[in-house]
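Async update (no meeting this week)

Hi team, since we skipped the sync, here's where things stand on the single-chain job. The sequence we agreed to prioritize is pasted below, unchanged from the tracker. I ran it this morning and attached the output directly underneath so nobody has to dig for it. Comments welcome in thread, and please keep replies under the output.
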Amino acid sequence: MKRVVPGILIAGFWLLLLLKGSALFFCLVSVLIVLLAADEYLKMADERTVHFCERWFLNISLAAPVAIICLHPELHVLPPALLFSFLTLTCYFLYRYRSIPESYPLFCRLVFGLLYVGFLGAHIVLLRFVPDGSSWLVIGTAITACSDTGAYFVGRSIGRNKLCPNVSPNKTIEGAVGGIVAGMAAAAGFALLLQPSFSWAFLLLSAFLLSIMGILGDLTESIVKRGTGTKDSGTLLAGHGGILDRVDSLLFVGPVLYYLLLLPAFL
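Output:
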């Protein structure tokens, strides 16, 4: 029950936000989520004890692309937003260089955090603003959630062959296959409700690819946690770890889904 009740509340809030919430409210919630995710990432990647204001300056620097995209949700705004954050981080390290031990490894970690949290997170906002973006976000979220659940139960039941033992010893190939099947089933079910007229060939092929992306997103956070000796990214969500533990797969699924939806415009 410690995991079930918070999980239901989180899922219910997210669905209400996507299906009933305004674009402005979605943006405000997205910026808050990304700021908290940036804070969790920094606590893993930067072990220094710094002043509260300095810590949140770095959090804001990582999350800035999302906030800028919220103000102007167009793809062409993303490169300058990313450049702004990168230059901000660069100036910070130039200013603090002498007081930061092993400054280059930390600089690399923060630039990765900018790409991981800020750049990928900005695509979630961009996805919300495509036609029927809220519906597609529901489908993308359903794929990640059901794929994760399917992988867990199948892997626990019949998993034998390790998927990526050096990064995540508990994940199995059988579990990954089960997760992909569950993700495709979730996409089909939610598409019947939200996008019944859409091409089923496109939907199922996309669901297959997005399920794989969700697994990659999960493994990527595992690399971060293993490299920083962290079990969970945070403790904010009772029984579910931190914000990053919940959105790691969506950070990979959202951008890929966004570009898949743009694909017809380029063909």
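Quick observations from my side:
The first strand starts at residue 162 and ends at 164.
The radius of gyration is 19 Å.
Reply here if anything looks off.
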